[in-house]
Amino acid sequence: MSVLWKASAAASALVFVSALEVSGQTVIDDREFVSWSHFSRVMDDPNAVGIGPGTSTSSGGQQDVTVGNPAPAFVAVHTIRYGDLILTGGIKEDVTYAPGQSGAIGRIDVSVDLRQFVIGVTAWQLVLRQGGKLYYSYPWREFSYGAWRSVSWEGLTAESFDTNPAAGRFGVNPDGDTPDFSAGASPLQFGIAVLNNLGRSGTVINTIAVDNFRVTLTPRDYQITGQVRDLND
User: What sign results for the dihedral spanned by CA atoms 209, 197, 173, 43?
Assistant: First the structure.
């Protein structure tokens, strides 16, 4: 179940919905990961040019009720081979933001809890889907092995995204293809991607978990009104 909560002007309340408009902002919050689709991609590691892409694989990419902060969580397992950059992601399918109805987007803020279970570093990105294309916030950000970590990325605009997930890293230039946040834009959906590569010869298996996914969309003409509107109505 997707969980969304915000206090109204009159009183504080818990509102269990998939998306909520709060004072003109739209908040998408998911802690259950029931209605998520999965995608994966294996690319040549820009830091090991000419070796990949090879045979790295992704499994999982779905809800796991045995892991979470608290459980459940969205979990992916990467079998990483040297020379590859492997990416696994998910899109929240039960919420769509229509700029023509809800307004042009001025900025996006995202927060999420992340954990990896093997020593090393994993990259993460917010993902948008619009018009059949996937757009990745760039350059990716990283978190390391250990306990659950709460991370955030604030002030994202259309120019913060590109169709190349490796943009801005290892000298990789963006494709220059960005999403449309204008009032006449096509609907958007939101999700997350996690990425791994390997800095030496060999193979490593890494498990990555995602929980407490929260996206806040602020319109370009944002004003504090104190109004709360359930977008599911």
Answer: negative
Q: Which of 187, 215, 191 is nearest to 130 (CA)?
A: 187
User: HEC string of the chain?
Assistant: CECEECCCCCCCCEECCCEEEECCEEEEEECCCCCEEEEEEEEECCCCCCCCCCCCEEEEEEEECCCCCCCCEEEEEEEEECCEEEEEEEEECCCCECHHHHCCEEEEEEEEEEEECCCCEEEEEEEEEECCEEEEECCCEEEECCCCEEEEEEEECHHHEECCCCCCCCCCCCCCCCCCCCCCCCCEEEEEEEEEECCCCCEEEEEEEEEEEEEEEEECCCCCCCCEEECCC
Range in 35-39, 49-53, 145-149, 193-197 with the lowest mean pLDDT: 49-53
Confidence class for position 221, pLDDT limits 50, 70, 90: confident
Q: Of 162, 164, 142, which Cα lies nearest the Cα of 153?
A: 142
Question: What is d(CA 114, CA 147) in angstroms, rounded to the nearest whole number?
Answer: 9
User: What is the C-alpha to C-alpha distance for residues 160 and 125, in angstroms, rounded to an integer?
Assistant: 11
With contact defined as beta carbons under 8 Å apart, do 126 and 74 qualify? no
pTM of the entire structure? 0.87
φ, ψ of residue 102 to 5 degrees: the values are -105, -5
Tokens of 63: 């809800």
- Amino acid identity for residue 45 in this structure: D
Alpha-carbon torsion, ordered 70, 123, 105, 16, to 10 deg: -10
User: What is the CB-side half-sphere exposure of residue 90 using CA atoms within 13 A?
Assistant: 25
